[in-house]
Amino acid sequence: MFENSTRTELGDLGEFGLINHLAEHFVPNLPDTVCGIGDDAAVFDMGDKYGLVTSDMFLEGIHFDLTFHPIKHLGYKVVAATLSDISAMNGIPKRILINIGLSNRFSLEAVEELYLGIKMACEKYNIDLVGGDTSASPKGLFISATALGEVEKNKIVYRKGCKVNDLLVVSGDVGGAYMGLQILEREKRVFLEHPTMQPDIERHDYIVGRQLKPETRTDVVDLLDSLKIIPTSMIDVSDGIAGEIYHLGKQSNVGFDIYENKLPIDPQTVEQAVEFGLNPSVAALNGGEDFELLFTVDPKDYEKIKGNMDLTIIGHVTETPGKYRLITASGNAFDITAQGWGVIAE
Ligand code: ADP
Ligand code: MG
């Protein structure tokens, strides 16, 4: 199936390169697989509705750090983060399966705490935990979750589908989870050097909460439904807006202009970015894990979006594929590089 003759470093390929490379060989065969690899969730035909299924992985030391992440919050986050990909298809989450790998460092009580958080999230989002798998792990905690959801056929929204001049909208605010993580990591370093010092996180409660216990925007999916808006494309913000517009743009063959002064950034995020010597717009564009919804709408829906406290129009679709620009208040345009790794000038 694969015809590589020499060794290829995974680092050269990158995460998206690797997924694309694998996906080429797994084009769906079944007539009722509507969408396979490549969107936030896979889509299958259930007759009157579409079914949605998505999977996420959480590795200790990579995705979370239990020295500052309460394990109950982690349980909640695993569910919220996984369901976010169902919301990103304009779907309604219904069921989840959770797999855990545990080293002998963990007690029953720790696992119970984890599942208390999982249960809280299941109740909050009105879903059932219906299965999973449990294994020993040589080191640390491993969690993976698979969520199932559904959506009415005429309401499904993919990453592809937006047209030139569509408005780009984001829910809530962005950059907070990233700045929250910076604070937690700083306080961990301080604690390791000065174990008697009290952590300084209370005045950052909002952004620390964004990192430790994020929410899925199922409420935004409901809001769009009540406003009778079906976005023309949508993705959830798990890796930062800069990375997400790259996916929307690539799949819809368009570009985007984003207006810097429209980015919804919470005052705590701004304050912390400044304290860390970072341009708040960089945190807003490149910071991940906000789990907000980023979507495009037809300009005729402008009146329905405008004035809504939870939705912000931050830009629009342009006709040059692959061209993603940040327009500053003074009218200068800077390229936002794919996958969010570029430096955005002041
Ligand atoms: P998200 O950030 O929305 O979770 P990802 O970037 O993780 O999306 O995944 C993008 C797409 O690639 C999804 O359709 C996902 O199911 C698919 N994918 C990711 N990893 C793999 C893999 N190892 N094998 C097959 N498909 C994968
Ligand atoms: Mg996603």
Brief summary of the model shown:
This protein is of the alpha+beta class and 346 residues long. It contains ten helices and 13 strands. Adenosine-5'-diphosphate (ADP) binds next to α1.
Question: What would you note in describing this structure?
Answer:
By secondary structure, this protein is of the alpha+beta class. The protein has two domains: 31-155, 60s Ribosomal Protein L30, Chain: A (2-Layer Sandwich); 167-335, Phosphoribosyl-aminoimidazole Synthetase, Chain A, domain 2 (Alpha-Beta Complex), CATH 3.90.650. It contains ten helices and 13 strands. The chain has a seven-stranded mixed sheet, with helices on both faces. Helix 4 (176-193) crosses helix 5 and helix 4 packs across helix 8. The longest helix is centred in the middle third of the chain and has 18 residues, at 176-193. The model is unreliable at 338-346 (pLDDT under 50). Bound molecules: adenosine-5'-diphosphate and magnesium ion (MG). Residues 19, 22, 37-40, 56, 85, 238 line the site of adenosine-5'-diphosphate.
Structural class based on helices, strands and sheet pairing? alpha+beta
Supply the CATH class of the largest domain: Alpha Beta
Mean pLDDT: 94
Please give the number of β-strands: 13
Could you give the order of strands across the largest sheet?
8-10-7-11-9-12-13
Supply Rg.
Answer: 20 Å
Helix and strand pattern: HEEEHEHEEEHHHEHEHHEHEEE
- The N- and C-terminal alpha carbons lie at a distance of 47 Å
Low-confidence stretches: 338-346
- What does the overall shape look like? globular
What is the share of helical residues?
25-40%
Distinct ligand kinds: adenosine-5'-diphosphate, magnesium ion
**CATH level-4 homologous superfamily of the largest domain:** PurM-like C-terminal domain
Number of helices: 10
CATH architecture of the largest domain: Alpha-Beta Complex
